[in-house]
Amino acid sequence: MLQVLYIFIPMLAAILVPFLYKSIKNIHTGWFVLAVPATLVIIYASYIAKVAKGEVFQAELPWIPSLDISVVSYLDGLSLLFSLLITGIGSLVVLYSIFYLDKHKEKLHNFYVYLLLFMSAMLGVVQSDHLITLYFFWELTSISSFLLIGYWYTRDASRFGALKSMMITVGGGLMMLGGFILLSIMGGTYSIRELIVIAPDLVGHPLFTWSLVLLLLGAFTKSAQFPFYIWLPDAMEAPTPVSAYLHSATMVKAGLYLVARFTPIFAVSELWVWLVTGVGLLTLFWGSFFALKQTDLKGILAFSTVSQLGLIMSLLGGGAVAFHVNGAADLVFKFAAFAAIFHLINHATFKGSLFMIAGIIDHETGTRDIRKLGGLMSIMPLSFTVAAIGSFSMAGLPPFNGFLSKEMFLSAMLALNEFELFGFDTWGALFPIVAWIASIFTFIYSFYFVFRTFAGQYKPEQFPRKPHEAPIGMLISPMILAAFVVIIFFIPNLIGDTFVKPAVQAIQPFLYDSPSAIDIHVSAWHGLQPELFMTIGIVIIGVLLFVALPKWQGLYNLFPRSLTFNNAYDKIMQGLDVGLYRISRLYMTGSMRHYLLYMFSGIVAIVLGTLFVKDAFSISFEGAAPIRSYQIILIIVLVIGTATTILAKSRLTAIIGLGSVGYTVALFFVIFNAPDLALTQLVIETISVALFLLAFYHLPKLGKREERMRFQLNRAIISIAVGVMVTLIALSAHSQKLIPSISKYYKETVYSLAGGGNIVNVILVDYRGFDTLFEITVLSIAGMAILAMIKLRMNRKEKAHENK
Amino acid sequence: MKTNDVILQFTAKIVFFIIFFFSIHIFMAGHYTPGGGFVGGLLTSSAIVLLVLAFDLKTVRTVLPFNYTYLTATGLLLALSTAAFPMFLGEPFFTHFFDYFDLPLLGKQSLHTAMLFDGGVYLVVVGVTMTIIQTIGEDE
């Protein structure tokens, strides 16, 4: 219970943020917010020792018990690692944002509310054991990401990027929901743990492949895999703390988490191994290759993130291979899953620091364009040091943590060469080769990032403002991360035993009994192995190509834009926009007559259809009250009133005619002992007549704009059909009772259960209170809509576009 | 266009209060005899509409300086919180409570949480009706 509550702490804290922002102006709101992730880090850190021994913690909070939906917090090695990343990096990012976002100019309350919302959502994703709540949190991360990317919503690019990320990730999320539902149909449960237990029985199920593909679509869109990666570069419009947090360290790793979490269920499938490994490697190559085309610092980092996510994804695919080999725990195949988790940690440290440095450069020089930057080394020595540490780690150089995980990655890819199933014996050789080439490009863009910015010619006239070193508060967060980059290199096995192995055990539960059973020892030097030669090759070729970069970078411009995925996305969106607009224009004509025609034909079709299909029509005048003469008179008045309304030449006459119809109906209610209805009808009639009179001046004169009323057959048919329908319904309703009337129940319980005497009112406020609640909500919305349409409509002179 | 309609204005001032108090009565009595929040709200609005017809929107606005959008929001909030309140006591959403009390002067009366909900309905109805009438009436 308490453990579930931890997930919601950021969300609850978010409620306070706007009040703190409004009331305490001279302290940056971020300082208050910082307390939230910092507290959570301490809470989750207290689990580390026990989880490292292989214990799991579980707590449940029922949410919709009738549908068997509950919020389950399940903490094992994998969930705990992610939770610590989310809260740990979260703390550093909030600290960084305090100096990045100005407390006077920025809308901090929005920013921190979104950020805290995201934190809760992300914790929910990695801790949920229930598929439906997992999906709920998953989409919540997409929504908070949308809000954060669009934080500077007056910019066109921000809104475009926000929408693009939402379209792609929410679309993928829906696919994933489909996969989840199929899984629950197959397994009969929503619990991931229970599904893992019965996983061997699911394989042969006809829905198995479908759910696998749908689930992977969710993971690939979220983790920006090929070809869905296109949203990530555009998401760089977000403030840099957001890019560092959501779009490199946490949210984009949700897809990796999903793949890791479901590996025990799907790994037995050949398709899974091929898709995850193949798409991962392709993304690794693609991202690293195109990173060099970018000129925006954050653009380089975005493509680099895409590529690194691909790397981890391919390792997870390689980890699935271990399910197909007997005794994999003792063979070379064991490295992949370990390397995946290890690199995930390392990536969070070095990429987080690099993003923050990119933000610092933007903040202190006013530009992120790498063509304008250069020679900042002597002006920003601290930033340079951090950037160099991060980049060298990313390039895979010792003594930084990236070197260790890069070596393990190469080992894992070489191991695939020895795998003999699924056609890997013929194609397996491709994996280490692609991995090696991609690593060369990774090396080049790492150098490109750091040396083009900090080395070379200093061009002061290019900078919008005079560059200077960032304030120390802004540097603390990247420095802490950079320190981790170095420290992890020297204590990899401590990290391995405490964080990586418990997580690996969650991915490969069938292989190991406990985290300590995983026999992997990370060392920086393991002899003259092929991995080492590959690394040496990467460095040599990388340096050569980097030096020659200006000569061949122009090649990127040869790629025609019309063939890119971005172009495809734009075309699809544009096509949908235009096409759907055309389709809706076909029936949304703006004429009230047409809309009434649609509605009435719909009602008639449904009601008469039901009457006919169910054979429900019958006539019986049994028990009917005798018709009195004054009732006949009222009927005549009613008919005359209706005819007047329709045929009147002036609108005023029509209004009066309509009013008389209403009052006559009210009289009928009086006659048939329905005082409540009569009262309401009378007042409604009065008010609507008054409203008509008020609006009277604005309405066009009858007959002026309207040509002669032509006889239209379809309208006549619909009118008659509506009349027939109402008559038939009235007759049938009186003649028979297919279902016993509920009024008896009301009569019996109105006093004892509801404490009232007037059934009509008790129905409104008690028996069917939900209806009333929704009705007044709709009423309010309608009121607000009318207010908005009339009062807030734009002047013709104002542009419809709200851009500055 | 505006004529000095003395008789209508004089009567309207008196009739307004009659209708208004009647609407309050109808609202209060709703649980046992015909009436309720919806009709009560409509009646109150019609009383205000009568004033609008007799005088004009500007005058009525200075006499009754309510922001009707806020009134709507308040009503909605009241209704929703009445419905949600039992959840904090561990009861299902929308559970109503009632009991009978001997009040001084009024004798034995029932107090019912449904009345709070109905009060929300009342406020929403007055708020929305008047919002619509005011916006359409004021639009040039």
UniProtKB/TrEMBL annotation, chain B:
<keyword id="KW-0812">Transmembrane</keyword>
<dbReference type="InterPro" id="IPR007182">
    <property type="entry name" value="MnhB"/>
</dbReference>
<dbReference type="InterPro" id="IPR050622">
    <property type="entry name" value="CPA3_antiporter_subunitB"/>
</dbReference>
<dbReference type="Pfam" id="PF04039">
    <property type="entry name" value="MnhB"/>
</dbReference>
<feature type="transmembrane region" description="Helical">
    <location>
        <begin position="38"/>
        <end position="57"/>
    </location>
</feature>
<keyword id="KW-1133">Transmembrane helix</keyword>
<feature type="transmembrane region" description="Helical">
    <location>
        <begin position="69"/>
        <end position="89"/>
    </location>
</feature>
<feature type="transmembrane region" description="Helical">
    <location>
        <begin position="12"/>
        <end position="32"/>
    </location>
</feature>
<keyword id="KW-1003">Cell membrane</keyword>
<keyword id="KW-0472">Membrane</keyword>
<feature type="domain" description="Na+/H+ antiporter MnhB subunit-related protein">
    <location>
        <begin position="7"/>
        <end position="131"/>
    </location>
</feature>
<feature type="transmembrane region" description="Helical">
    <location>
        <begin position="109"/>
        <end position="133"/>
    </location>
</feature>
<protein>
    <submittedName>
        <fullName>Multicomponent Na+:H+ antiporter subunit B</fullName>
    </submittedName>
</protein>
<comment type="similarity">
    <text>Belongs to the CPA3 antiporters (TC 2.A.63) subunit B family.</text>
</comment>
